[in-house]
Amino acid sequence: MKPYRELSKEELLALQEELQAEYDAEKAKGLKLDISRGKPGKEQLDLSMPMMDVLNGETVLNAENGTDVRNYGVLDGIPEAKELMAGMVGAKPSQMIVLGNSSLNIMYDCVARAELFGIMGSTPWSQLDKVKFLCPVPGYDRHFGVTEQFGIEMINVPMTEDGPDMDVVEDYVNNDPSVKGIWCVPMFSNPGGVVYSDETVKRFANLKPAAKDFRIFWDNAYGIHYLYDRPESEQPHILNILEECEKAGNPDMVYEFCSTSKITFPGAGVAAMASSEANVADTKAKLQWQTIGPDKINQLRHVRYFKDINGMKEYMKKHAEIIRPKFEAVLETLEKKLGELEIASWSKPVGGYFISFNAQKGCAKAIVAKCKEAGLVLTGAGAAYPYGNDPEDSNIRIAPTLPSTEELSIATALFVTCTKLVTVEKLLAEM
Amino acid sequence: MKPYRELSKEELLALQEELQAEYDAEKAKGLKLDISRGKPGKEQLDLSMPMMDVLNGETVLNAENGTDVRNYGVLDGIPEAKELMAGMVGAKPSQMIVLGNSSLNIMYDCVARAELFGIMGSTPWSQLDKVKFLCPVPGYDRHFGVTEQFGIEMINVPMTEDGPDMDVVEDYVNNDPSVKGIWCVPMFSNPGGVVYSDETVKRFANLKPAAKDFRIFWDNAYGIHYLYDRPESEQPHILNILEECEKAGNPDMVYEFCSTSKITFPGAGVAAMASSEANVADTKAKLQWQTIGPDKINQLRHVRYFKDINGMKEYMKKHAEIIRPKFEAVLETLEKKLGELEIASWSKPVGGYFISFNAQKGCAKAIVAKCKEAGLVLTGAGAAYPYGNDPEDSNIRIAPTLPSTEELSIATALFVTCTKLVTVEKLLAEM
Q1: Source organism's superkingdom (chains A, B) (predicted)?
Q2: The CATH number of the domain where A165 resides is what?
Q3: What residues of chain B lie within 8 A of the CB of A297, using their CB?
Q4: Which of A186, A273, B59, B314 could in theory staple to A196 by disulfide, Cβ–Cβ 3.0 to 4.6 A?
């Protein structure tokens, strides 16, 4: 098949008719599938069911330091949970605050505390005329939702294959004191699957922020979420931002986040924050008024289940075995059905939860709408951009993990048909 | 023994010497006991251990509406958890938001949201010159900690045996638009054990707040925490504030809170907020940016364990059997050792977690300090007052639940000795 742009009007019209028939047939199947979010599938959740039994028949539930985890107290998590979660990001246990089931909640609360009370004695952001965040795009819609909710001005920063465009980042951060933060998913970025290069991480660590309360919000959500089983030395990796910031004399510049949401249970995992000891102290001083402490029983349950970080990493191979075929099925179909048409490009991730798809300019909303009309709910077009506004109307996030292989195959076929049809319609409209 | 105030100087001096010797002997025992917080004891926590096994061997963990509780989603809790928690406060399930393990966290977040975003479109409190909260005293120190952290001005309201002095409450709430809230523990108040009378609840419901974003923070922490097993009709009760507010045309005036912290596990229970459907909608609209959802597995675990609210109420009788003897032991010792001396008064609670003790004016700090010197940590004197400032320096909160019966007996003996000694010293100093 030739690239669409080389087709004549007649060829396009014929194609449109053919695609419309295909679409109508697919629509008639009455599909009802929502793959709008990066949710693990049932088979993945089943993996962790033995964790439900790990505290069976116990009569004592003490942390290693003797704390009864059933009772009140321990603001920042039990020691063994700190150690486990520290292993996920290469931090020291003293740099950890281990909390409940949602790292998004921890991030939101970090922003909320900065708004209400400031960071380490700085002016509360809510008292400033203007607060800005840099937002590498495409990025994670819920990050942008948090900053939008707080009325923080969001500035798009283009993503490259090495991470955010650091020239742009440096220019803003080092010169504009109203820039207080940047959202980063440094490993298998959401949705692009980008792994920040060593150079990018070093440039982050060596920023010279105009605002002393500038913080990098380093959402290391997929730090051990590889799709392929390779020796660790051959896996994609990122530099340890906490260490790099320390080396660069910026120890307090980063808040890092991680969770077991996509390791055990999204609804009942353990989430944590890692940062300098000074940031940890500053955070705990405010956190102590918000809660007496997190669910320590669930922390203990996770530690008993995994034993240590190696146990957790080994476990992630089972997830990979489940989701890798789903990614590969989508990627193969895209390649086979769209590869030669030159009407789209997409990421080929080796980890994380998403495929980032770029249609022709101005087509994304129409494709998502057409899919929805036929029963397939995708993440809203534009969601990966601040204010839901993709200036190119081109990006679509594909989340292959939730559906069964069979559902996914129907969904991908439909998606391809919609992409083709919308593109043809656009080409015709432009003639 | 005669009342102390009738003793001569010589008698007091002799008594002081005797008490000092007693104190020294008790101090020499090297006690190390912290009863500063209202924590359940080990035996109570053991009660709930079978809950750890309730999801054993399950292969499917679905809520009654089919939601897989292991995955992401469900911002406000699963339906059966709403129903269970609604039963605790007599609310409708549609009035519930069921979240994680800490009702304090929910309360803090309610204040934080009001500060950041306002309530139902009102000006965010952080943008106002002055925000005030009424604080019935003595009250719960962590409530006052939250409002202090937000820089909210706290105004003491005296407690009566029917609840807060409603003349004072009405005067402030109905006339001062900067009064935005009041902290209430309506049933077995912390620390006084007061149960708000029907008249008090009705007067609350019929307030005519000068501020339309005034909210009653109704912390129903001990709603089913009776010490005595009586037919429900003979138990202390409070009117349903949600219903009363609705009847009075003030449906949105109250945020109510409850939790299973002192029913199952303080560290791993389920907490909830109950309010009008309009407040619930307003809260969820902001909450959706903070989290994807609470730990639904733990919610399901609680529901499966208790079945329904009757199961939970029945269960509370077992708690009562464990803690009632502790309360009674303390009360008997106080009565026997201090009853005739007329140097102190104390509450005789029939529910809740505390005994509120009033020493002679100006004695509380000294008594707590003397106990501490001998190894017994009590709640800090003044903690039950905003800014930790008890104007009379008289109130001490006794939390009898955590220690074993034996520890409690040693602790009470020491407390009595310290109270006597400090009072004698004061009487001598005033001569």
Answers
A1: Bacteria
A2: 3.40.640.10
A3: 52, 265, 267-268
A4: A186
